[in-house]
Amino acid sequence: MAEVNSGGDDGGKGKKKRPKKGSTRIDMTPMVDLAFLLLTFFILATTLSKPKTMEIVYPKKVDKVEDKMELNDKLANTLLLGAKDDQVYFYPGKFKLDTTTLDKVDLSKDGLRKLLIERNKNVLAVIKDLETKYINHQIADSTFKRLRSKAKGDDKAPFFIVKTLDKTKYKIVIDVIDEMNISNVGKYAVVDMSEAEKIALKRETKE
Q1: Which pLDDT band, with edges at 50, 70 and 90, does 204 fall under?
Q2: Average pLDDT, stretch 120-140?
Q3: In the β-sheet with 159-164, what is the strand arrangement from edge to edge?
Q4: Averaging pLDDT over each range in 21-25, 37-41, 182-186, which range is the top one?
Q5: Inter-CA distances, 146 with 26, 50, 140, 141, Å
Q6: Is the separation of the CB atoms in 111 and 94 below 8 Å?
Q7: Which residues make beta-bridge pairs with 192?
Q8: What single DSSP character describes residue 80?
Q9: What is the DSSP letter of 139?
Q10: Smallest Cα–Cα separation from 117: which of 181, 188, 190?
Q11: All domains of the chain in start order, with CATH
């Protein structure tokens, strides 16, 4: 067995030997390896944030009258957005200057959202049934998304037309589209307001 030499000599007989003090040293290599392993794990396991975008549907431009999309008046719903935050008006069907009545709505859950849910109740009933089947594991996630998208774009689903002025604030348009997404409205478009609608809006706002 090897003998450990503590250094120094006896210093003479009868004197006690003083043990040599060793320096304290901690090996940090395993800690560094562990840190890199944890970092790699969290990078691979974490879902990176995706850029948030909002899809706004604009109708395509047509050159011929016969190429224009025809809407069923029973399914058509129009929202007129004025220049101020509280100038949001609704009318169903086809617009007629002398007979169409504009109903004012606000952007609260008891205003525009309630209106959208009521007009879109058939689609919402189908989506609710799909959600129940998905929760009960009767349909897969991909099937649920595909059937929900199909229900929102069904031929009998209501179509909403958002019409704006040149002075309409961008924030109002975004708020209206947010409410449509919350209410699962899948068919809508943003277009310019006609001259007749501008006249009717001017009457309501008294500007």
Answers
A1: confident
A2: 94
A3: 103-104, 88-92, 76-81, 159-164, 188-192
A4: 182-186
A5: 58, 21, 10, 9
A6: no
A7: 164
A8: E
A9: S
A10: 181
A11: 71-118+158-207 (3.30.420), 121-156 (no CATH)
Query: How do residues 44-63 score in pLDDT, each as one tens digit?
Result: 887 666 666 555 555 455 45
Strands 159-164 and 103-104: unpaired
- How far apart are alpha carbons 45 and 40 in whole angstroms? 9
The token pair at 131 is 């959600």
Taking the C-alpha atoms of residue 49 and residue 158, their distance in angstroms, rounded to an integer, is: 33
Whole-number mean pLDDT of the chain? 81
Phi, psi of 98, rounded to the nearest 5 degrees: -85, -25
- How far is 79 from 160, CA to CA, in rounded Å? 7
Query: pTM of the prediction?
Result: 0.66
